[in-house]
Design a protein that fits this description.
2 copies of one chain form a homodimer.
Chain A: H1 9-12, E1 16-19, E2 23-24, E3 30-31, E4 35-41, E5 51-55, H2 62-69, E6 82-86, H3 114-129, E7 136-140, H4 142-153, E8 160-164, H5 172-186, H6 203-216, H7 220-224, H8 236-249, H9 253-264, H10 276-281, E9 286-289, H11 300-307, E10 313-315, H12 334-347
Parallel strand pairs in A: 5-6, 5-7, 7-8, 8-9, 9-10
Antiparallel strand pairs in A: 1-4, 2-3, 4-6
Chain lengths: 350, 350
């Protein structure tokens, strides 16, 4: 167990650690006392039919959802909905390599799959809040993977789904991309097979990972148009050292590796012996598939190909020069599009 | 000086090492006895107006041009043209860190710019062959950079130009991409600040570089469609270990770093105080700008934006699911397009 100040209330504000008990894992082994870091907004109504689940992405937590996506001025309004954000296993807030003890600590942390998270979330929502059905499940990137997993695994528990900038079945290109992120960590002698004393010992590897994100996480146009100037940086180098590097270097390498493995192996066809049309055909939720047009590793065509296999779905493309990291909601044109689409989706009777 | 068997006639067939004497460099310093590795096909006619110059790309040599692009069945036919391929400085065949001695060896090798190569090539062509004007200059990727530099620096010496999958002014995204390739080398303890005994000591870093090429060098569709099956590999992992990794691990790290710096800093606006329209407006050559539609780091729009600034030019987009590394000419549909465009260009009276 490592004491990492980033994964605290000081940096992440209010959240509750809720135990769902023992979680048996798809890859074998179990987490004896699985803790999920949960934030909620709004009130669950008596019918318990106004619940929205937010899932989190690689390196992200509920924080970005709180700061950017949720509020009375947004489609995700606490005035109408009971919104629950559950930080994924390995996020650093929920049970993760760096905060686990004994047999689970650090390099011994087991492999966790998207399906494990969704099973854990379903149990949490049912046992903690009595929620049997969700008005909406959504998430970006790895959150989209969890959203698809929900819609395929528990079709009658999901009325609406909004996977943003992500896929139901991870692509081989995405797998290889994620592997270069992992190699940036593994290649740092300070990583030491996962048995470092502090994430600071892996700063060089985390910095290299940040640089690869700089290439793939934004678009070519983001850099060409110098969009970082709007964020008050004076050069692309200053943006790297002032934004991307500190974003990643505070994080825990083993936590990132746990999420990366999960991301790489995300695949709803585990429910249908590898048959993607069969898996996506199980979805009964009204689904808005929402890729970002400049995304370099979840390109629109990959998302559109999946959308075409989902019975009651629409393709809603987000226009954002930031590319995948448009998810941060930096562009002033981003949230109006998200709110429009989520508003339309929530207004759909299902 | 390192004895690297890859940079030999055994692997690269016939070429001549031709000295152009002392080359003073734009960044300062000089190469006292600059040797260029040169291959030619065909005969220079009496008017000396049938000469074509081929320039080389990062990690590439004349070899790929000989094996794929040049021949009586191609637009680049030795039956009609005198074709000269000049391997760039730092290529490993021409003067390069690993084959230099004394003050130039290894980590002490000076910074070389695209303009240095073009000045060296112009001198070589004039002094060695008496060529004052070229019927065509072409190249892919870094070869496109050299092609643009020729057309801007020596407008009256270039009648036609065909920059393939590259830009006249390197983009910031491209700069950052190349930096991740460099960091894969720099982060290998075996690199040792450039003072290794053999490229084998940097195998881990070169392997990581190969993996990053796997993400950016091909397209998302290349991986999704499993195009590597046509190359007789059984899995994407086998393609990585059987093709991409051995391609890079035989190469010299300092040579790659020399080319990478040159690539990163390629910019024809050095001739016009940073004014791109002015620089490209100097081009008098009939120019076909030939991006590859699936290229992830020289996207069509970047190439098209430059083409729009070139007076006598056309945009000829190559359709190839391989993306940037379509340049290898693996797809059976690639060379017919290249031959069509180059044939049209060579048939244009100028």
């Amino acid at each position: 167990m490592i004491d990492n100040p980033f994964y605290t209330h000081e940096f992440h504000g209010e959240y509750d650690l809720i135990s769902i008990g023992r979680l048996d894992l798809e890859e074998g082994g179990s987490i004896p006392d699985c803790q999920l870091a949960v934030t909620t907004w709004g009130e669950l109504n008596e019918a318990k039919d106004n619940a929205i689940l937010i899932t989190t992405w690689y390196s992200g937590t509920h924080q970005i959802w709180r700061d950017v996506y949720v509020g009375p001025e947004h489609a995700l309004t606490p005035e109408k909905y009971f919104i629950v954000a559950v930080n994924q296993i390995g996020s650093g807030l929920s049970t993760s390599p760096h905060n686990a003890e004994g047999d689970l600590a650090m390099s011994t942390f087991p492999k966790v799959r998207i399906g494990d998270d969704v099973v854990a979330q379903e149990r949490l929502l049912r046992e903690q809040f009595g929620i049997e059905q969700l008005a909406l499940v959504l998430g970006g990137s790895m959150g989209a993977q969890q959203t698809y997993e929900w819609a395929v695994r528990f079709p009658d528990r999901v009325r609406r789904a909004a996977p943003i900038a992500g896929t139901a079945q991870n692509t081989p290109h995405d797998f290889l991309y994620t592997e270069t992120l992992n190699e940036a960590i593994w290649s740092d002698p300070g990583w030491n097979g996962g048995e470092y004393k502090s994430n600071a010992e892996v700063e060089a590897g985390l910095t290299r990972q940040a640089h690869i994100w700089g290439v793939m996480g934004f678009s070519t146009e983001f850099w060409k148009q110098e969009v970082w100037r709007a964020l008050e940086f004076e050069s692309k180098e200053a943006f790297l050292t002032g934004f991307l590097e500190p974003y990643f270097t505070v994080m825990d390498p083993n936590d990132l590796l746990t999420m990366a493995w999960k991301w790489q192996h995300g695949d709803v066809t585990r429910h249908t012996d590898g048959d993607l049309p069969a898996a996506l055909g199980r979805i009964t939720a009204k689904t808005f598939v929402m890729p970002i047009n400049e995304d370099m590793f979840f390109p629109v065509r990959d998302c559109a190909a999946e959308q075409a296999l989902i019975p009651n779905s629409e393709l809603r493309v987000i226009d954002d020069v930031l590319g995948h990291l448009g998810l941060f909601g930096v562009a002033p044109t981003y949230m109006p599009q998200i709110d429009q689409h989520l508003g339309d989706l929530l207004a759909t009777e299902v």
